[in-house]
Each structure stands twice: as C-alpha cells, then as structure tokens.
Amino acid sequence: MNAPSNPNEAAAPGTAADRLRIVLVGTQHPGNIGSAARAMKTMGLSQLVLVAPEKAPDRDTQAMAAGADDLVEAAPVFASLAEAVADCRWVLGATARSRRVQLEPLHPREAAARAVAATASGPVALVFGRERTGLDNEELQLCHAAIHIPSDPAFPSLNLAAAVQVLSYELRCALLGEAGPAPAAARTPPPAEGAASHAELEGFFAQLAETLDQIDFHKGRAPESAMRKLRRLYLRANLDSADVRLLRGVLADAQRMARLAGQAGQAAGGGKIG
C-alpha cells in the first residue's frame, strides 16, 4: 500500500461517514491494525489511514480484522501525520492529558458530535498514537483539539482497538442523531464551509514562525511557548482559505520590511570607519 499522490484521494467525498478518517500513527503490532479496522466497520466507518506503521499489515492483521480486510487493503500509508491530514478541516488527537501541549480537551461524545458537524466543510481526522507511547508532542501540535476517554484513573490504559471502538461508537451515535447533549459547552465551533485545510494552516504557521524569527520577536527566548499559544489562538478562530491568504500576505510584507531593515543596517555598518 502506498500513499496517494493527492491527499484528497484518501477520503471519499460522499456521506458524513465517508469524511470521517481514523488515522493510526506508528502502529507497533500489525494485529492492532486489523482490530481497529474491525472496530470501525462494526460502526459503519470505512476510512482507515496508516502513518509509518512499524510493520506492514500481515496475517495477524487479517486474522484480527475478522471480515474488515477491505478497510485494511484500501488504507493509504503516509510517511508523516502532516501528510495524512493535509486536506482535513479538523484534526482530533486521542491522547492522555498533556501538560506540555495544551489542547482543548473534549469528551468523546462532544468530540463525535462536533466531528460529524465538521464534515460539512471537508474531511475530519481522529488520530491515534503508538500503543506504548501515544502521540508525541510534535504530532499533537498538528491537532486542533484532544479527545480524552474518561477511563478509571486507577487503571486508565486502553489498548488501541478499544480506544478506536469507543470513539467509533460515539461517531456512530452522532451520525444517527442519537448522541444526546454534549457533556460540556463547546468553546470552539466546528469549522464551517470553506474552512482552511490543515495543509494551508500549517503553511501559515511555518511562515508565522519564520517571520517572528526575522523580526526578533522572541528576543532570545525559546520560541516554542509563544508558537503554542499562537497556534491555539488561530485554531480557535476557524480561519477560512481567504483568511489564511490575507494573513500570509501581511506576513510576507513584514518579512520584506525585515529584509530591507537588515540590508539598511548592513549598509550603514559597512560605511563606518573603524
């Protein structure tokens, strides 16, 4: 299985269920891929995506899929999470709470309801990390919000397939209109039609980071903290493609002025007599 040349080929454009993507990152045991596929298929989901699995699907995968082999066979494989979600309008990471990457925490029921609503603007990804270590901080930075399954604190560990099953069930209920009220008020509405794609947002964030460096915004401080806060701020804004183009135009002018200021400084310094 290979990654499609166009990320949009990874998701069917039809129903809301077709736009819901289950992404498995760095899966360590091939059997878990099959178990996750089975969990999805029982709940009417079909869009499975793999990111850099440690081992390719094998006979264990087929055995654990128990009839969901078609999902595994159709699953595209990407080298990175950024590539796998490039065309998505909303990305949710299933994870334990992280103190370093502060994402809006969502209950599975709330996450499912908002994910289904967000499919109106394009593909939505629910991302699951490695069996032992989960998603790393860099991968979590690519997510708009985090899903926390409220397991027993005395024994909080869920295996990968169980986590996929819980969230697939909640998605199924939301698709059927049976999710009921969300347990907490949503702080960020799901993206509307025309929302910027994940790739567009990541391009903006990369240019923003470059610009902040060029204007010496950080003044010698580590840039990670400021970028985390700025990412959260802009993700809450639910930018559309036109918004991103406008902001990138502002950044381009700021970068141009920074270059001119640097060139002027060099010229002034070169003209001094030592």
TrEMBL record:
**Reactions listed under catalytic activity:** uridine(32) in tRNA + S-adenosyl-L-methionine = 2'-O-methyluridine(32) in tRNA + S-adenosyl-L-homocysteine + H(+); cytidine(32) in tRNA + S-adenosyl-L-methionine = 2'-O-methylcytidine(32) in tRNA + S-adenosyl-L-homocysteine + H(+)
Which domain of life does the protein's organism represent? Answer: Bacteria
* GO MF, one annotated term: tRNA (cytidine(32)-2'-O)-methyltransferase activity
Question: Where is the protein localized?
Answer: Cytoplasm
UniProt cross-references to Gene3D superfamilies, sorted A to Z:
1.10.8.590, 3.40.1280.10
Q: Cite the EC number.
A: 2.1.1.200
Q: Does this entry carry the keyword S-adenosyl-L-methionine? A: yes
What cellular component terms from Gene Ontology apply here? Answer: cytosol
Tell me the GO BP annotations in alphabetical order.
Answer: tRNA nucleoside ribose methylation
Keywords associated with the record: Cytoplasm, Methyltransferase, S-adenosyl-L-methionine, Transferase, tRNA processing
Kindly give the InterPro entries that the UniProt entry links to this protein: Alpha/beta_knot_MTases, RNA_MeTrfase_TrmJ/LasT, SpoU_MeTrfase, tRNA_m1G_MTases_N
Q: Which CDD domains does this chain map to?
A: SpoU-like_TrmJ
| SUPFAM superfamilies (alphabetical) | alpha/beta knot
Q: Give the first-level EC class, as a single word.
A: transferase
Which residue ranges does the record assign to the tRNA/rRNA methyltransferase SpoU type domain? 20-169
Q: Which family does it belong to?
A: Belongs to the class IV-like SAM-binding methyltransferase superfamily. RNA methyltransferase TrmH family.
This protein's assembly is summarised as: Homodimer.
The protein's role, per its UniProt record: Catalyzes the formation of 2'O-methylated cytidine (Cm32) or 2'O-methylated uridine (Um32) at position 32 in tRNA.
The identity of this protein, by name, is: tRNA (cytidine/uridine-2'-O-)-methyltransferase TrmJ
Organism source for this protein?
Thermomonas haemolytica
